[in-house]
Amino acid sequence: MGVDRCDVQNFRYDGLCRLTRAWTANDSGGCARNATNATSSSPAPYDVAYTYDVLGNRTTATATGVNGAVTASYTYSSTRPHQLLATSSTGAASATATYAYDAAGHQITRTTNSSKVDLTWDAQGELTSVGTDSSAVYDANGERLVRVDATGTTVYLPGGQELSINAGKVTATRYYTFAGQSVAVRTGRGLGGVTSLVADLHGTTLAAVPNGSWKTTSVIKQYTDPFGATRGTPAAVPGDCQFLDKTRDQTGLTLIGARYYDEHTGRFISLDPLLDLSDPQQWNGYAYANNNPTTWSDPTGLDPDTSAWITDRIRADVESGKTEPEGPVPSDDPLPAPRPGPYAPGQDHMRASEVGHLALDLTGLAVDGVDIANAAWYALEGDWENVAWSTVSVIPVAGVFGTLGKYVSRAIKAAKLAEGASQFGKRAHSAAGIAPYRTQRLLTRGRNHAIEAHHVIEKRFARRMGGNTMDWPAVVLTREEHRYFTHAWRNEIGYGAGTRAATRQQIEDAARRIYADYPEILEALKL
Q1: Residues of the chain scoring pLDDT < 70
Q2: Residue 467's pLDDT is what?
Q3: Which of 185, 220, 365, 471 could form a cystine bridge with 239, CB 3.0-4.6 A?
Q4: How many CB atoms lie within 10 A of CB 209?
């Protein structure tokens, strides 16, 4: 790569730190050059200017290129002023798009140049289908287990592993991470099957380096604008994790934590379920990273990480003993030691492989071909009984016996999960005490879920319990412990209809049972 092909990007902001212009310049010119596509030395030049209204909605995006300027204008609802209703482009290229939403703020139709696509959402606010070719299945925690689209079926397994089934052919992809960031992806055997990934500070892939070829010409470079849209026509990077190291679907949407994101509009397609009303810029529940994607990011889809610099300082002070978390801390004593579970020491929960098999089992009830992949996985583990069950399940002539065997196998595994769940609520331990969720979240940010802040009353009950969930009592848990509590709550009060039907008394009674061995938590809840 010669110096004349450097990708030098420049950015400007308004008084609210919103991005107002992003462009590439000659590597020697810097910001003062104000180069356009005609003079930029970048291999993927661009120049885009943004404007916003007083509500934080993007009103125009003007892209200037060698063929002239294209201005996209954005129209919003008068009754729900943060909902994008239409975009229209004029200039060197023209295009139109319209959008519609349901009462909960989920986008339900996308019409581009007269081509209409319907989006379907379940009772939990999860996007289950886009058009007729794309659908998804989620677990109780909202994590996507299965994706089905025109390329086939993808099953997401623990440890960064993915299985793809297309026309009966099964392929595997595995992501390797370090410090919470994907650093390599395996798509084949041996060293040649591994590609190293180079990312920016937000985790977006910048380049992919094939480990089997060390030539500079083998490096695949990825260029994006600040909001994640691809610049130029780069070769495909292995895997489909790109912007923020998140999965970009064939639909053009990117699953970022709890929500789906549209890189072309720079917005999420559903409302933020966890608004921080103390920050006026977050009142726009659809905007991404407060319209400043170069400085900030929103990897969870729930909260723009706009205070990472001060968060790190607060967390360092707390861990070094210089200060205590802000807000009331009823108890600084560690929570009681966890009781032993029904499994052997170190195995008091389902192993990652068991969870993966269970995901494939559940998927196999609805998606053809998944049981083939499951049988192959069982064979590698030497579990020939389950190889038989999974194989029988895909043979039509086996009829009712194969189906019965499949359901019996699923029932046994579900019982194992339930057995482990009965102990979930008795394994929490934390030295951070009990404090408001907003305080505990400061301690857990940037840890890539190694530790997590847990509402002791799940926030899905906010409507029934009242108050701001950011002020609810919370504890700091490991990811494993957090999962235990989640399953314990799910066993007490199911999701969907269970959440809607639960009374305040039922929620409080469930908390008493879940935290029976943790008087500090019950005291904080006044129970």
Answers
A1: 1-5, 26-40, 92, 305-431, 445-449
A2: 80
A3: 185
A4: 16
pLDDT digits (tens, 9 = 90+) for 200-242: 989 999 999 999 877 778 899 999 999 999 998 878 889 889 8
Torsion of CA 421, 427, 433, 438, to 10 degrees: -30
Q: Please write the tens of the pLDDT for every residue from 109-134.
A: 999 988 999 999 998 899 999 999 99
Give the C-alpha separation, 67 to 47, whole Å. Answer: 12
Task: Pull the structure tokens for residue 19.
Answer: 């991005």
- Quote the Cα angle for 464-469-470, to 5°: 170
Q: For residues 23 and 42, give the distance between their C-alpha atoms in angstroms, rounded to a whole number.
A: 10
Q: What is the DSSP letter of 391?
A: H
Q: Which pLDDT score, from 0 to 100, does residue 462 have?
A: 86
- CA gap 60, 39 in Å, rounded: 24
Closest among 518, 338, 512, 339 to 433, alpha carbons compared: 518
Structure tokens at 85: 């209703």
Give the CA distances from residue 317 to residues 119, 434, 442, in Å, rounded to whole numbers and listed in that order. 46, 18, 11
Residues 6+ apart with CB under 8 A from 49: 20, 21, 60, 61, 62, 64
Per-residue b/e over 59-71, b at no fewer than 16 CB within 10 Å? eebbbbbeeeebb
| Domain residue spans of the chain | 308-339+425-524
H/E/C letters for each residue in 76-128? ECCCCCCCEEEEEEEECCCEEEEEEECCCCCEEEEEECCEEEEEEECCCCCEE
Note whether 303 and 309 are within 8 A (CB): no
Question: What are the Cα distances from residue 425, in Å, to 235, 465, 477, 482, 524?
Answer: 48, 20, 12, 9, 16
Element (H, E) at 480: helix 479-492
Residue type, 3: V
Distance between CA atoms of residues 490 and 482, nearest Å: 12
Helix (H, G, I), strand (E, B) or coil at 54: coil
